[in-house]
């Protein structure tokens, strides 16, 4: 189980302030989605939560522990991150990739065990990629490869999962397939925080949406609570109409520029 608290953090990238006083909280079993324009600090925020980018100010607390006080191995057992463009060495098989998820549990006094083998096989089976175990990643489709990366994340077995645009470069069918698997991680009790650009999918799959603008989380809540025409204008500079689906989920319909007076 994981409870994440990000408290007023400030981050710099190449001396430029990219995140300015961002705060968010995410409970166990929830899917949180960060939305916002390119360059607003979303990816840097995820890296900071994973302790891969230093904090200038603020703190990140995971299950009541300040992550500044956690070792790299402790972090790797608590937080997994799938970056936006994950690449594997040429010729790597699916089985080899998923085994990487168990490396945080190896050490001076613990070598590979039957427990690790079982975790790897169960993860591949859960994500439907066990049949690809001996196939090379570069032989698979985009959707299949993404499921293999998620199997590695599942094998790592961390209470907090961070995903940076996990559906990029996938067609709609594969996007939904991947997001259903991500939702399944939350149903296992994990906290899942991801970046998405597709607002329709964010609305459909997020328990909490975090709207980010110019390095700040400007509002958060359920889709019904925060998705408004005013928010879309603030985030993207786009005029939009907000419609509602039969199950009362907001649907963002951008206006054509030619129609805007």
UniProtKB/TrEMBL annotation:
<dbReference type="Pfam" id="PF00005">
    <property type="entry name" value="ABC_tran"/>
</dbReference>
<keyword id="KW-0406">Ion transport</keyword>
<keyword id="KW-1003">Cell membrane</keyword>
<dbReference type="InterPro" id="IPR051535">
    <property type="entry name" value="Siderophore_ABC-ATPase"/>
</dbReference>
<dbReference type="InterPro" id="IPR003593">
    <property type="entry name" value="AAA+_ATPase"/>
</dbReference>
<keyword id="KW-0472">Membrane</keyword>
<keyword id="KW-0067">ATP-binding</keyword>
<keyword id="KW-0408">Iron</keyword>
<keyword id="KW-0813">Transport</keyword>
<keyword id="KW-0547">Nucleotide-binding</keyword>
<dbReference type="GO" id="GO:0016887">
    <property type="term" value="F:ATP hydrolysis activity"/>
</dbReference>
<dbReference type="InterPro" id="IPR027417">
    <property type="entry name" value="P-loop_NTPase"/>
</dbReference>
<keyword id="KW-0997">Cell inner membrane</keyword>
<dbReference type="GO" id="GO:0005524">
    <property type="term" value="F:ATP binding"/>
</dbReference>
<dbReference type="GO" id="GO:0005886">
    <property type="term" value="C:plasma membrane"/>
</dbReference>
<dbReference type="InterPro" id="IPR003439">
    <property type="entry name" value="ABC_transporter-like_ATP-bd"/>
</dbReference>
<dbReference type="GO" id="GO:0006826">
    <property type="term" value="P:iron ion transport"/>
</dbReference>
<feature type="domain" description="ABC transporter">
    <location>
        <begin position="4"/>
        <end position="239"/>
    </location>
</feature>
<keyword id="KW-0410">Iron transport</keyword>
<protein>
    <submittedName>
        <fullName>Putative siderophore transport system ATP-binding protein YusV</fullName>
    </submittedName>
</protein>
<comment type="similarity">
    <text>Belongs to the ABC transporter superfamily.</text>
</comment>
């Amino acid at each position: 189980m994981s409870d994440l608290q990000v408290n007023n953090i400030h981050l710099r990238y190449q001396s430029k302030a990219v995140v300015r006083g961002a705060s968010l909280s995410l409970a166990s079993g929830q899917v949180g989605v960060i939305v916002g324009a390119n360059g607003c600090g979303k990816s840097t925020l995820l890296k900071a939560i994973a302790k891969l980018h230093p904090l200038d100010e603020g703190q990140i607390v995971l299950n009541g522990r300040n992550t500044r006080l956690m070792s790299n191995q402790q972090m790797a057992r608590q937080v997994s991150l799938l970056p936006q463009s994950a690449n594997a060495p040429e010729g790597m098989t699916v089985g080899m990739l998923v085994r990487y998820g168990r490396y945080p549990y190896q050490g001076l006094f613990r070598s590979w065990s039957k427990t690790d083998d079982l975790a790897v096989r169960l993860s591949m089976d859960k994500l439907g990629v066990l049949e690809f175990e001996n196939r090379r990643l570069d032989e698979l489709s985009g959707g299949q490869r993404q499921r293999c990366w998620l199997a590695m994340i599942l094998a790592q077995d961390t209470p907090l999962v961070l995903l940076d645009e996990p559906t990029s470069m996938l067609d709609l069918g594969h996007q939904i397939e991947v997001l259903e698997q991500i939702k399944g991680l939350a149903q296992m009790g994990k906290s899942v925080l991801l970046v998405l650009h597709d607002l329709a999918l964010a609305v459909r799959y997020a328990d909490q949406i975090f709207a980010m603008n110019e390095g700040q989380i400007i509002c958060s809540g359920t889709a019904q609570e925060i998705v408004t025409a005013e928010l879309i204008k603030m985030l993207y500079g786009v005029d939009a109409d907000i419609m509602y689906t039969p199950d009362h989920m907001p649907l963002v319909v951008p206006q054509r520029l030619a129609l805007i007076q």
